[in-house]
Structure formats: C-alpha cells, structure tokens
Design brief:
18% strand, 4Fe-4S ferredoxin-type domain-containing protein, 267 residues, 4-stranded mixed sheet, two-stranded antiparallel sheet, Alpha-Beta Plaits, 31% helix, alpha+beta, membrane, single chain, 2 domains
C-alpha cells in the first residue's frame, strides 16, 4: 500500500502568534526549556533555534505603504523533498521518510555538521555536549501512528493545517493563495512545510522582493554540499574499477596457468 506524502500549511493570514505550537513542540518532544532574557531586537524569544528548541515563532514588523505591519512566521525545518542535509551526511544518519519527514537519527549522528553547511534555511543545531545535531522531526512518530503533528493539534486558529501534500497545494492555490514551497528549486525540490498568504502577497514589492523573501525564505535557496556525495560516487566508481581489475587478473592468471600446463605436457 503506497504511503501518503504529507505537508503542513502555515497560513500567515490567520496566525496570531500565540506560540501554542512552540510550547506543544517542547512538550511532545520532551525538550528542555530555554532560559530567556529580554530581546532588544523584537518579540521573538528564544531569539533563535537551539539543540533544545526545534521551532520558534518569529515576530516580524515593519512599514508598508505607510502602514505598519506585524506578522508571525513559524520557523523550523521545512523538510525538503531533495533533503540536501541527508545527501551531505557521510554516515546516513538522516532519513527521508515517504511521509515527507526528514529525520536525524541521533544514534547514528557523529556530529560532523555537514548537514548544517548543506541546509539553505539555517535550521540544524549542533550540541557540543552530546556531539549531535538536532532539528524538527515533523512529528514522524505521531504521523506514523495516525496523529497530527503536535504543533498542528495545538493551533487555536487553524493557521496550521496538516494533510496530504498535493491536496493542500491544490486547495490553497484554488483559493487564491500565494504558496511558498510547492516547487522551490533543484537544490531543495519542494518543501513539506508550505507557507501561504493572500493578505501579504504584495509585501516587499516596492523593494523588488517577493513576500516570502521578506520572511527570510529565499527564492533560490542553496547551501554548501560538502564533497561527501562526490566522494560516494567516486568511491562507487573506484570499487567498480577494482572489481574489473580483479576479474582481469583472474582471467590472466588462469590463462597463464593453462599455458604452463600445456608446456609441461608438450615437454
């Protein structure tokens, strides 16, 4: 039976920034609370992701057409279909599930941090105490048991919607929403977190930007893929050459042996 590919819509128009999703993420994943302090840069607090905080609510404010705006953006791993972090991992510690989740296996992670370099959204966080890297799991454990991700279940305004990825894209496109994530580029493919808006679609237009770029979502996201993938391909090639060499040597050795036997009989 084919596995359904899922996604989560973040509706910027209906999010009220209550942080219920942030708390639910902490509770479900058993993550320690952060000791926070006053953030002079704004209301985002904790101000950034950490090994113990896998999602945050970002509070973005500014002025557009003379009018102030204040919107809220849920920030976490976007779970890319091409998952460059998984391609960068030299020990296959990052699994890409058919449901859409990209999950770091802590029992395999060696703390090399190649995944951090490969991520164009600046998401994975390294913990020097454990020598591991951590990030959102899309609540794959809940999904595989028929439950919604914890953040979605906690949202009081239905600004988060979980469902089959294709159906979500078609639903919001048909309703006139702008969508970020249904096809980004060849580096990340599409993302399983989808950001949508009708209200903020012109945000940043006067500065020549798309609304999602104002939110920190690049139009052409790219990270730095270490030479691991190339190394794997070269390794496969060398292994094939070694195998061919072994076969050639065996053929040569057998021919020489037969020649030697023939010479002995003739003598």
């Amino acid at each position: 039976m084919p596995v359904t590919e899922y996604g989560i819509v973040v509706n910027l128009d209906t999010c009220i920034g209550c942080r219920a999703c942030q708390v639910a993420c902490k509770v479900w994943n058993g993550l320690k609370a952060e000791e926070t302090s006053f953030n002079p840069q704004g209301y985002t607090n904790p101000p950034d992701l950490t090994p113990n905080t896998w999602m945050i609510m970002q509070f973005l404010e500014g002025v557009e057409d003379g009018e102030p705006f204040w919107l809220f953006k849920k920030h976490q791993c976007l779970h890319c279909s091409e998952a460059p972090c998984a391609k960068a991992c030299p020990v296959n510690a990052i699994e890409v599930h058919p449901e859409g989740a990209v999950v770091i296996r802590s029992d395999r992670c060696i703390g090399c941090r190649y995944c951090i370099e490969a991520c164009p959204y600046n998401v994975p966080r390294y913990d020097p105490k454990t020598n591991k890297v951590y990030k959102c799991t899309l609540c794959i454990d809940r999904i595989q048991n028929g439950l919604q991700p914890a953040c979605v279940e906690a949202c009081p305004t239905d600004a988060l919607e979980f469902g089959p990825w294709r159906e979500l894209v078609e639903k919001y496109r048909a309703a006139g929403y702008e969508v970020y994530g249904d096809h980004v580029n060849d580096y990340v493919g599409h993302t399983h977190y989808l950001y949508v808006t009708r209200k903020y679609r012109s945000l940043g237009a006067k500065q020549g930007k798309k609304w999602y770029e104002v939110l920190g979502l690049p139009a052409d996201p790219r990270g730095r893929l270490p030479g691991v993938q190339l190394g794997r391909e070269v390794g496969v090639g060398l292994a094939a050459l070694a195998a061919l060499g072994a076969v050639a040597h065996a053929v040569y050795w057998r021919a020489k042996r037969m020649e030697k036997r023939s010479g002995s009989k003739g003598g």
